[in-house]
């Protein structure tokens, strides 16, 4: 009955009984419509949160703004698409393979491009990561073309009390929640996780107490890339992909990282839910790209009132 709602798609108001030509959408809507929009918002928010996880880890530990994060997502998308359609593997089996591939890829990117300029100004790091983005996206475009691609599967949807839940987005939400829990537990209870937290708090002090900071850096970048790969790997489950799709997710992911708090994994999920809510309800009520204006208004408001973010400062303690 409903089309899957994702980045690049709009809320289909005709399916709710309203006219897109007259934009006759009332301020107060029926409860069932509100619940359906809320379901869309939660599902999209989970995906946003998953995208922001790797970004907040890299920035929180290394203080590196990784513009290549969206491109790493695209590698995850095409890895799942190629292994599913080209090799005939189960798409859910290809997701962990894509995550492992992106971890190794992330470590290699860090060692070859980030490590040599880790102490340089952030402007240099921005330029380098932007260059990595262009190389990755261009390579994928050459290898697979710029045409949209999709998995040869139809997951369908789940109906609960009259509310429509696309299975692909539902799986993505589950992956997002699990990723937050596993990442938080890893940072909280493992020796390596505590070393990463210590490096995030004070890089110099971490080195003085014997932590191998360069090793922590490449492991952190690899983990951030793996989380980007996980985010990208679940996206083909519910929408078509193309080499530039990561950029659309990345823009709002930066907003989510600041909104939730730098380095905060629960904050990334909370921020994703908030932006998902604004995105879905904003597209339903506001004309054109008005929802994006609302998102950036929230971004500016948070910077003015609580620069550390909603859950910033205590995420890993």
UniProtKB/TrEMBL annotation:
Transmembrane segments: 33-57, 64-83, 95-114, 126-146, 170-187, 218-238, 250-277, 284-305
Gene Ontology CC terms: plasma membrane
Cellular localisation: Cell membrane
GO molecular function: transmembrane transporter activity
Sorted UniProt keywords: Amino-acid transport, Cell membrane, Membrane, Transmembrane, Transmembrane helix, Transport
Main location: membrane
The organism's place on the tree of life at top rank: Archaea
One Pfam entry name: BPD_transp_2
Cleaved signal peptide residues: none
Membrane topology designation: Multi-pass membrane protein
One GO term of the biological process aspect: amino acid transport
Family note: Belongs to the binding-protein-dependent transport system permease family. LivHM subfamily.
PANTHER family assigned to the protein according to its UniProt record, in alphabetical order: AMINO ACID ABC TRANSPORTER PERMEASE PROTEIN, BRANCHED-CHAIN AMINO ACID TRANSPORT SYSTEM PERMEASE PROTEIN LIVH
Protein name from the UniProt record: Amino acid/amide ABC transporter membrane protein 1, HAAT family
Lineage: Archaea, Methanobacteriati, Methanobacteriota, Stenosarchaea group, Halobacteria
């Amino acid at each position: 009955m409903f089309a899957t709602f994702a980045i690049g798609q709009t809320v289909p108001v005709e399916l709710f009984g309203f006219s897109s030509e007259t934009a006759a959408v009332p301020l107060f809507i029926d409860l069932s419509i509100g619940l359906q929009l809320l379901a869309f918002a939660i599902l999209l928010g989970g995906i946003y949160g998953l995208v922001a996880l790797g970004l907040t880890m890299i920035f929180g530990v290394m203080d590196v703004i990784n513009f290549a994060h969206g491109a790493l997502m695209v590698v995850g998308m095409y890895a799942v698409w190629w292994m599913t359609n080209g090799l005939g593997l189960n798409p859910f089996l290809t997701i962990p393979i894509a995550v492992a591939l992106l971890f190794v890829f992330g470590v290699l990117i860090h060692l070859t491009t980030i490590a040599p300029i880790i102490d340089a100004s952030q402007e240099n790091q921005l330029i380098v990561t932007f260059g990595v983005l262009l190389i990755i996206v261009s390579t994928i475009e050459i290898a697979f073309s710029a045409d949209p691609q999709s998995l040869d599967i139809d997951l369908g949807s789940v109906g609960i009390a009259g509310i429509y839940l696309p299975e692909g987005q539902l799986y993505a939400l589950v992956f997002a929640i699990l990723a937050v829990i596993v990442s938080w537990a890893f940072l909280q209870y493992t020796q390596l996780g505590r070393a990463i937290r210590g490096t995030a708090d004070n890089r110099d002090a971490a080195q003085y107490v014997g932590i191998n900071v360069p090793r922590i850096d490449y492991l952190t970048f690899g983990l951030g890339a793996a989380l980007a790969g996980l985010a990208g790997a679940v996206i083909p489950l519910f929408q078509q992909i193309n080499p530039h799709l990561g950029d659309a997710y990345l823009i709002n992911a930066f907003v989510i990282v600041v909104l939730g708090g730098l380095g905060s994994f629960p904050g990334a999920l909370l921020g994703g839910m908030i932006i998902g809510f604004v995105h879905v309800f904003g597209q339903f009520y506001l004309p054109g790209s008005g929802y994006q204006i609302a998102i950036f208004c929230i971004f500016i408001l948070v910077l003015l009132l609580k620069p550390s973010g909603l859950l910033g400062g205590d995420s890993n303690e």
